Amino acid sequence: MMKPFLLTLALAVICSTATFGQTEKGSKMLGGTGNLGFSDGISVTVQPSIGFFVADNFAIGSALGLYYYNRDDIRQNGIAIQPFIRYYIGESMPIRPFVEASGGYMTSKTKYSYSGNSFEQKYNNGFFGAGVGAAYFLTNQVGLEAMLYYRTSEDRGLINYQGNSRLGISFGFQIYLPGSSAK
């Protein structure tokens, strides 16, 4: 009961502090994305991220991806490190489009169970992705975002190497913290 109150209070304090340009050099962004899927089993993905604005509108950062999937006969979990670069287009306004490029490495383990037999297989994937999106700023320091992305990877660990490419959409939020050089 106390945790939701403290979280709400913390967000209120962050949102009510003095406002600065969201994407100025020296600012930071903290946030992430997540999704929950039920189409063929249950899948959960959580991806916290941190970024630093090295120039106005231009951030570099990294995300840590955590993935879990469970179906009657398959259970999979994985972890990924995903450095990214992001550029925001336009001036300060409630909706800011951006472009992003990322790459990284994922390792995962899959356990298969059939007719009382089971085995595990490990996968190691390098991947690259790019996307276009928009951040909707609820305040100068809190934004909701959506991004349409394309990702390609090579799955190592399979008997035959195979590529995996997909188009997707992600939703998330960011908290923008002014840096010492933000005015």
Automatic annotation (TrEMBL):
Q: Which residues form the Outer membrane protein beta-barrel domain?
A: 8-147
The source's domain of life comes to Bacteria
Keyword annotations: Signal
Q: Which InterPro entries match?
A: Beta-barrel_OMP, OMP/PagP_B-barrel
UniProt-listed Pfam families = OMP_b-brl
Keyword Repressor included in the entry's annotation: no
Q: Which positions carry the signal peptide feature in this UniProt record?
A: 1-21
Gene3D superfamilies per record: 2.40.160.20
Instruction: Report what the protein is called.
Output: Porin family protein
Query: Lineage from the top down?
Result: Bacteria, Pseudomonadati, Bacteroidota, Cytophagia, Cytophagales
